[in-house]
Design goal:
Order of helices and strands: HHHEEHEEHHHH
Number of strands: 4
Low-confidence stretches: none
Helix content: 40-55%
Radius of gyration: 22 Å
Largest sheet: 2 strands, antiparallel
Distance between the termini: 57 Å
């Protein structure tokens, strides 16, 4: 076997995570073996093992000694998982980018989200979790290209979460995805405004003064934002 230097554990783990999200690997289903993954991707068994370790760290698989590796079954209908939540938001945005809403469509438009990939298939049973209807009226009016780019950004972020784990820098990505899944990104009633100046401010707004401290005093928190 020729060992590839391009197919990294990050790529393999990300591919498997996408397959789990899409239902190509159903919850509770056995994954391809480490040897099969190594053969399919043209990598060493160590690289395949590292990919599976990343999936396990993300909470997407479990290993049964002597039996194999299986996609984790989410015990609750909408149990949070950062990777799957961000991928689900990517799917919502991508679906909306391709849909055409007409006069006969419900107002506001809704999509089915969440639930088990087994729902509506021959593998459905009494424990299969159904999806829920999500109001996407706010998102549906966005430019289709913006929705596509949002989807791609979410998907890239989800792959990064699988490859490197969740860091503090990923907090806004995950919360944005969950806001979309919760209520379509709709602004909560009575939500206070975020001030242009004062209030919460990005930590890097004073980059110019860090580069050229001789240009003056740090920015007045009550003044212009830049």
């Amino acid at each position: 076997m020729t060992v590839s230097t391009e197919n990294s554990p990050d790529l393999i783990a990300g591919d498997l995570a996408v397959a789990i999200h899409r239902g190509a690997i159903r919850d509770g289903e056995r994954l391809p073996s480490q040897a099969k993954l190594a053969q399919s991707y043209g990598v060493s068994s160590g690289t395949a093992a590292a990919a599976l370790a990343k999936l396990a760290a993300a909470g997407l698989i479990r290993t049964a000694p002597g039996s194999g590796t299986y996609a984790t079954t989410r015990p609750k209908s909408f149990e949070p998982n950062p990777v799957l939540d961000v991928m689900a938001a990517a799917s919502v945005c991508r679906t909306l980018a391709g849909l055409q809403f007409g006069p006969a469509e419900p107002d506001p438009p809704r999509l089915d989200v969440g639930g088990s990939p087994r729902w509506g298939t021959v593998w459905e049973d009494e424990e299969t979790m159904p999806p829920r209807r999500l109001d996407v009226g706010v998102l549906a009016v966005l430019d289709r290209h913006v929705l596509r780019w949002m989807s791609e950004a979410f998907l890239s972020g989800a792959r990064r979460l699988v490859a490197h784990g969740v860091s503090e820098a990923d907090r806004h990505l995950i919360e944005s995805a969950r806001a979309i899944l919760r209520d379509g990104g709709r602004r909560p009633e009575g939500q206070p405004g975020i001030a242009v100046s004062g209030g919460p401010t990005p930590a890097d707004e004073d980059v110019i003064l860090r580069i050229w401290p001789e240009r003056g005093e740090p920015r007045d928190p009550d003044g212009p934002p830049f």
